[in-house]
Amino acid sequence: MTNKSIFYIFGILQAITLGLIIFFILQTTNIGRDTNIVLSVLFPIFTLIVEYMIYSKR
Q1: pLDDT value at position 57?
Q2: What SS3 state is found at 5?
Q3: Among residues 9, 34, 10, which one has the least CA distance to residue 23?
Q4: pLDDT in tens, 3-34
Q5: For residue 18, how many other CB atoms are within 10 A of its CB?
Q6: What is the mean pLDDT of residues 35-55?
Q7: Is the pTM of this model over 0.70?
Q8: What pLDDT score does 40 carry?
Q9: Helical (H) or strand (E) element with 25
Q10: Are the beta carbons of 42 and 15 closer than 8 angstroms?
Q11: Residue 17 and residue 12: Cα distance in Å, rounded?
């Protein structure tokens, strides 16, 4: 396995886990379901993109 494939595997697992944690934490608040889903998807994707940009500069 190359380092890039390991990055993709663990990066995607990390993004999914982060999204689920955010989703379940935000369910306890009074925000709407659509806002909850958008935040649960966009924040992990943004984090994954930033991590990829940092990783690819090495």
Answers
A1: 81
A2: helix
A3: 34
A4: 888 888 999 999 999 999 999 999 999 999 99
A5: 16
A6: 93
A7: yes
A8: 95
A9: helix 3-26
A10: no
A11: 9
| Strand, coil or helix: 46 | helix
Quick count: other Cβ atoms within 10 Å of Cβ 36?
A: 17
Task: Give 27's DSSP letter.
Answer: T
Q: Which tokens in the block code for residue 44?
A: 């992990």
Q: One-letter amino acid identity for 29?
A: T
How many Å apart are CA 58 and CA 51, to the nearest integer? 11
Tokens of 28: 């306890």
Dist CA 42 CA 54 (whole Å): 18
Rg from Cα positions in the chain = 14
Which residues fall within 8 angstroms of residue 26, CB to CB, at 6 or more apart?
35, 36, 39, 40
